[in-house]
C-alpha cells in the first residue's frame, strides 16, 4: 500500500530546474518564504535537486536587479531557518526577462541576472499573433548572451510561423518547453506543440515555471503522466549543464 502513495521521481533525470518564480512577493509567484519552502519540498519529491530562481523582469513587474539580489539573500536565510532537509539546493538567482519594446529598460541593462555561462532566460508576448522581437534577440546575442526562450509552445505567433522556429534556431536561441504544458495545464495547443518541439529535438531544456502551490499540484500530477514519463526516459535534456 505504501508504494501507492510514494511520489514518482519522474524529473530526476533533469536534476535542475532553472525556471521558477519562488522568490516571494516580487511577481505573480510565491507569496511567502513558507510557500516557497513547501514548493521546494514538493519539487524534491519529484526528483529535483538544484533550482535557480527566475523572477519576472517586465513592465508589469519592473523588478530591479540589486533589490532582487538582496531579497534572495533574505530568502536563503529563511530556507536555512526552516530546518527542512529534503529540499533542492537553491543555487542562485537569475531572471526571466520579457523582450518587449514597451519595457523601457530593454535592451542594454547592465546588471542582467543570468544563469551560468551568461545564459539569459527570456520570453516575449504570449498574447499577440503578429510579432516576434527579433531585433531584441539579436541585440542580446551581439552582447554575448546565450538565450533560452521560455515556453516556446505557448506563443501563438511562433506556433503559427514554423519558419520562425527555424530562424530562432539558426540564431542559436535554445528552447525550454514548460513541463506543465505536457499535461495540458495551458490547453491542448500548448500541449501538442510542447510534445512536438521535444520529439523534433528542438527543445534542449525543460522548465517547471513553478509559481506557487497551485502549480505544484499540477507538477505532481504531471509526474504521474505516462506520456511525460516516456519523454523523460527517451529524450536527453541539458538542464544539468548549469551545475557543472
Ligand atoms: Fe516564468
Give the topology:
Layout: E1 16-17, H1 33-45, E2 50-53, E3 56-57, H2 65-82, E4 89-93, E5 96-98, E6 119-123, H3 134-142, E7 146-150, H4 156-160, H5 162-170, E8 174-178, H6 188-199, E9 205-207, H7 213-223, H8 226-234
Parallel strand pairs: 1-2, 2-4, 3-5, 5-6, 6-7, 7-8, 8-9
Helix pairs in contact: 1-2, 1-7
The structure holds fe (ii) ion.
Describe the structure in your own words.
With 244 residues, the chain is an alpha/beta fold. It has one domain (11-237): Metal-dependent hydrolases (TIM Barrel, Alpha-Beta Barrel), CATH 3.20.20. The protein is built from eight helices and nine strands. The chain has helices at residues 33-45, 65-82, 134-142, 156-160, 162-170, 188-199, 213-223, 226-234, and strands at 16-17, 50-53, 56-57, 89-93, 96-98, 119-123, 146-150, 174-178, 205-207. Strands 3-5-6-7-8-9 form a six-stranded parallel β-sheet, with helices on one face. It has a three-stranded parallel β-sheet with strand order 1-2-4, covered by helices on one side. α6 links the parallel β8 (174-178) and β9. The protein is globular, with a radius of gyration of 17 Å. It starts with 15 loop residues before the first strand and ends in a 10-residue tail after the last helix. It binds fe (ii) ion (FE2).
